[in-house]
Amino acid sequence: MLIGLSWPWLAVLMALGLALDLRLGEARRWHPLVGFGRLAQRIEAALNRAPGLRLRGVLAWALAVLPPVLLAAWLIAQTPWWLAALLHAGLLYFCIGLRSLREHTLPIAQALGAGELAQARRLTAWIVSRDTRSASEQELAKAGVESLLENGNDAVFGTLFWFLLAGGPGALLFRLSNTLDAMWGYRNARFLYFGWAAARIDDALNWCPARLTALSYAVLGQRRQALACWKEQAPAWSSPNAGPVMAAGAGALGLALGGAAVYDGEVEQRPPLGCGVAPQGADIVRAWRLVAMSAALWMAVVAAVALPWLLGGALHA
């Protein structure tokens, strides 16, 4: 088979990949996604020119994503099962970012708790595209919580979903597509047409995992409120996948998110998310716990489904 192993064994390898991420964190040097980003920049520089920008964008996406994904699938198909297992787990480790979410966001909460507003602004600027130079404590806390909730899907649950469907190549497909959306998916003069394919493909790959993420947040938080915010607020959000994730997450935490944010020196009024109180620094920690508990929930559900298969196979061996 293309992915090299049966689904129950992929569930075992999902636990291994998560464990590697939590133990080791992101590779500090020679991270594959860093190299991919540089490759994507070169492809965009060569192809992002008129005419036919949408077609060029499709070609650029294919040139950036398909070769590494197909190579990974081919290597797995050609190797013994034990090496295929290592490749699956290794690809998941490089694609997932659960520990990095904690490492990038909890220091913001710590800085806010210590009253170090300047430090909190610098740390927040590393993870969001909005202007944080004059942001207040509440604005920084809001940015941190929103980033955690949205990236819980983009960096964690979407990757896990596609890993369970197609192993390491599936996780790689999702992560590279999501990276291109983050690089090219802007609605500005430079990327409106060229980045159209990257944005739409990411929307398609993210549709199911985003809703499972939103459901996970609701189950583990204030459930009724989360589901109501999802239903009422998500349609107003510009992204079809970020809307459900962030609305449900905000409702689950009992926080009021969305609203005004500064981008490129201009104030943008975004639709409201959630309901309740404005976030404080400690709410970043609460948001991290929600993401971590959701990962544990996914692992528990997958284990509950996979273990009977594995035990049944062992008993009949």
Automatic annotation (TrEMBL):
Bilayer topology term: Multi-pass membrane protein
Listed GO CC annotations: plasma membrane
Annotated TM spans: 6-24, 58-76, 290-311
Record's subcellular location: Cell membrane
First-listed, main subcellular location of the protein, grouped into a coarse class: membrane
Pathway in which the depicted protein is active: Cofactor biosynthesis; adenosylcobalamin biosynthesis
Keywords, alphabetical: Cell membrane, Cobalamin biosynthesis, Membrane, Transmembrane, Transmembrane helix
GO BP, one annotated term: cobalamin biosynthetic process
Pfam families cross-referenced by the UniProt entry: CobD_Cbib (PF03186)
GO terms for MF: ABC-type vitamin B12 transporter activity; threonine-phosphate decarboxylase activity
Tree of life domain: Bacteria
Family membership: Belongs to the CobD/CbiB family.
Record-linked NCBIfam families: cobal_cbiB
Role: Converts cobyric acid to cobinamide by the addition of aminopropanol on the F carboxylic group.
Protein name: Cobalamin biosynthesis protein CobD
Organism encoding this protein: Herbaspirillum seropedicae (strain SmR1)
Organism phylogeny: Bacteria, Pseudomonadati, Pseudomonadota, Betaproteobacteria, Burkholderiales
Gene: cobD
